[in-house]
């Protein structure tokens, strides 16, 4: 499955917004705010495609000092557990390294901590609530 960067405002970007909404927000009864969407203009947007259909996505935000924050990781329903998330994470780490980042951080949903730990991420601090559900700060040196 081809992995590639997505340009803000394109057809692929619209697919990304839809996937993020379906997987990350709709189940919580939440939507995106205009401010949240505007933040994405400066992010590195990454996707995994099957033909032209987006199967998974994530975003990298530059936090300064060589740190990138992974955000909005989502894999299409029915495809979780097929390796798409793992491929996307390896791709995100490669892109981050290529762009000069030395550390990746994230706010990981409690339900996904095991997935990230298998990829070498560690919990940095106590559980907290974000978008109404438990999260942990996790990080990995690249």
Chain-wise SSE layout:
Elements: E1 3-6, H1 11-25, H2 34-39, E2 44-50, E3 53-64, E4 67-75, H3 84-98, E5 103-109, H4 113-118, E6 122-123, E7 128-130, E8 133-141
Parallel strand pairs: 4-5
Antiparallel strand pairs: 1-2, 2-3, 3-4, 5-8, 6-8, 7-8
Name of the CATH architecture: 3-Layer(aba) Sandwich
How would you name the oligomeric state of the polypeptide chains in this document?
Answer: single chain
- Please report which band the strand proportion falls in: under 5%, 5-15%, 15-25%, 25-35%, 35-45% or over 45%: 35-45%
Q: Number of helical runs?
A: 4
What is the CATH superfamily classification? Gcn5-related N-acetyltransferase (GNAT)
* Computed structural class: alpha+beta
**Which runs of at least 5 residues are low in confidence (pLDDT < 50)?**
none
- Main beta sheet: strand number and arrangement? 8 strands, mixed
Any idea what the radius of gyration is?
Answer: 14 Å
Name of the level-1 CATH class: Alpha Beta
The name of the CATH topology is Aminopeptidase
Structurally, the number of domains stands at 1
Backbone shape: globular
Helix content: 25-40%
Written as H for each helix and E for each strand, in order along the chain, the element string is EHHEEEHEHEEE
Distance between the termini: 24 Å
| Mean of residue pLDDT values | 95
What is the number of strand segments?
Answer: 8
């Amino acid at each position: 499955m081809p992995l590639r960067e997505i340009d803000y405002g394109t057809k692929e970007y619209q697919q990304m917004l839809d996937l993020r909404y379906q997987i990350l927000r709709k189940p919580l009864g939440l939507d995106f705010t205009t401010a949240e969407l505007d933040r994405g203009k400066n992010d590195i947007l990454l996707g995994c495609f099957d033909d032209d259909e987006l199967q998974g996505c994530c975003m990298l935000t530059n936090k300064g000092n060589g740190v990138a924050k992974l955000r909005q990781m989502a894999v299409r329903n029915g495809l979780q557990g097929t390796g798409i998330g793992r491929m996307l994470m390896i791709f995100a780490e490669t892109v981050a390294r290529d762009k000069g980042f030395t550390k990746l951080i994230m706010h990981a949903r409690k339900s996904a901590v095991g997935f990230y730990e298998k990829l070498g991420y560690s919990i940095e601090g106590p559980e907290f609530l974000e978008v109404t559900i438990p999260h942990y700060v996790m990080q990995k040196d690249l």
